[in-house]
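User: Run a structure prediction on this.
Assistant: Running it now.
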Amino acid sequence: MALLIGLAAFVSTFLGGLFALRFKDRLHLILGFSAGAVIGVAFFDLIPEALDLGGSRYGAGTITSIVALGFAAYMLLDRLVTLHSHEESGLERGKLGAGSLSIPSFIDGAAVGLAFNISPSIGAVVAIAVLVHDFSDGVNTVNLILKSGGSRKESFRWLIADATAPVLGVVSTMFFSLPESALGLILAVFAGFFLYIGASDLLPESHHRHPTVWTSLMTVLGMAVLYAAVRAAGI
């Protein structure tokens, strides 16, 4: 069952990326939505999950500090890449962002596999939460490459990597087990990553040389959609 969910996550991510490729002429609107979706995933999904999984052992203050650490670590890595890549910094930053989305996609798959090992009901809830934001993961992966000057072919390669990641995550749980508290810390780190990507990369770029009213509304819509989806998945 968990492997089937992993394959469904592949399809969901892939469809999101195809959507972004098809409507790239409206990229600023998609970027605005993506910024809201990435920030929404961090606030409404990753941080609450991190608190649920790791808060009982480490405390809420520790978990939120790990979120801040993830934000700062990604910022430093982003600045380091920018300083050392010169004229290719835009594309390198895009690859960095796309790669950072692929890694938590792998964690998503691992979370599904581990949850099903705990109980089918918990696995089902986690699976729904993963599927509802995998579509936006595909959109975000393609957007990060395209807006950085990458080609459609390159964005497609990164989309395949991101879509494959949750499948590999599910498969990996056949070979290891991970304490819930440790998974909570990992999710907190990636929440910090997502907050930086949304607030410092996607959001400013969506407003670049475009009216801010529609892109701002799309950002709010992205957050609202993720909020509704995550709440519905928790029912």
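Residues 84-88 have pLDDT under 50 and may be disordered.
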